[in-house]
Amino acid sequence: MTGGESDKHFVHALKKAVSGGDVKMAKRLIKGGVDINNPSFWFDGTLLHEAVATGNESMVQLLLQAGAAVNAQDKSNRNSLHLACRHGHKLIVQRLVNANADVNAQTKDGRTCLHIAIWRGYSDIPRWLLKAGASVNRQDEDGWTPLHWAAKSDLLEVTQLLVKQGAQLNVQDKNGKTPLHESLAHVHTDVMAFLLKCGADPNIQPKVGSSLSILLGSKSCTQASVSTLLSHGYNVHRDRWLHKGTMSRTLPSNIRPLILAQQSRVEALSQLCRTALRCRLLDVSGGKDLTPLTTLLQLPQLLQQFLLYEH
């Protein structure tokens, strides 16, 4: 067997050991000098990618100790941490973070590990990633931030965490949609109410439709969810969708009275003041959560509650 053929044989043997979880054999081959960073798996992934994908913590530890490139990327620009977050391997995520994996590396479609962990519905992993320095406002190629994914997935605790960490509430994706729009589309009422309280603007209109039309487009839409939107500063008079002559044909019969009542109502001065103050506070906060700012300004409790729709 020639040197080249011998090398290929040992590389193949190591691949087999890693895929099969044979730590003892892998350790023997690595000690013999087999290249552990050879991108020879599917999509040009490395041995570390494979070990992470299979969830073998002992194998991951062995490869890291042997000098595996923790930030090596496959053809989709995924590093090993992307895979660990995708598969929900919590201990491996922590081990890779401790090995200085790049928590803000982006795949070809622009997703970070934080995007992926939230998309997959995990709650602990995003917390660890944020502690490790994950960017809370990084956008993928579609303009989605982690908050878009949390709102779509009805992950209230993750949504609260992201907002506390400085997530931009009103950032728009390529279609002009904000995280609030995603919560409306799926009628995630708790997430919707939380975002509205913190400063999400219900009057931002996407390229197609409006906040109200997005909410009504869901089969899960209820009177209560529409009332929540209307009571948190939604301006029916600025809704282009309502003024296209389609209202009578498309509004559900149980929703129409709510909209008509809102359209005929003269907004109270207190509500106008609240809207103006919230807009100003949102500017000062840089588009982030209003709650800490109302506390910092030492506003009277009743005024704080009023501004945050708690009164």
Automatic annotation (TrEMBL):
Keywords of the record: ANK repeat, Repeat
Top-level taxon of origin: Eukaryota
Pfam families in the cross-refs: Ank (PF00023), Ank_2 (PF12796)
SOCS box domain span: 256-311
Keyword Repeat: yes
Spans of repeat ANK: 43-75, 76-108, 109-141, 142-174, 175-207
Protein name per the record: SOCS box domain-containing protein
Organism of this sequence: Ridgeia piscesae (Tubeworm)
